[in-house]
């Protein structure tokens, strides 16, 4: 009986501890106080972060890509995630405060206090500057509204238990930059673009069994989360293009061998083509500083 009582007590203590540790952790109160967004600057952040690439409706082209109605599906080993409506409507993020927006983007915490799944790359956006977040929201608020309802994810047990994501965040939310050291201003800008805004690591870095990035093999490629094909290694071990060739690829979609970009990378090229060429050059300089990983 004593053994049973002891085991039960430990189980209760463990459950309470897990509940506390898995609680959402929003930004500190007042983190966004005094910030005023500017939509023109936010447009560049929007394209660098690839917001439309995931949140436009399936099959959208042209101006329709700026209607962030959601609905695209992203299959993975954990189930299928569906991008939500983030347009400035009541069905999207209309009425959200900047603080609520910042908590969603940087901490993966919804306005109602629940966890978002890390298919939304807040683990990368956690490195964003708060002013960029304010500018991004100012731009999204100028876009067309859509009343399309956000569709639910298709996840099985235990991945449908959102509370468990608090423990995932404790393990895998970043606390620093992956590539540290004495970087040039251009390389530093490239790091900000690659590790934060453009979230390159989310696709190009292999993951462990819990879905966390294996940062020891940063940008070394791996299986496509959809189960179809692989994502290439873009460290200097495999990506041997010159910086000029990387810039040309990011802005035109053509490789040095005159192959053309395909898949989701085509959206990345579309986005970089809308930015000053200096942004692609910064990413190219950063990629040359990444340790070569076979």
From TrEMBL:
GO MF annotation terms: electron transfer activity; heme binding; metal ion binding
Keyword Secreted: no
Pfam families: Cytochrom_C
UniProtKB keywords: Heme, Iron, Metal-binding
Signal peptide (residue range): none
Keyword Heme: yes
PROSITE patterns the UniProt entry points to: CYTC
Domain Cytochrome c residues, every copy: 37-144, 185-291
SUPFAM superfamilies tied to this protein: Cytochrome c (SSF46626)
Protein name as it appears in the record: Diheme cytochrome c-type
Native source species: Gemmobacter lanyuensis
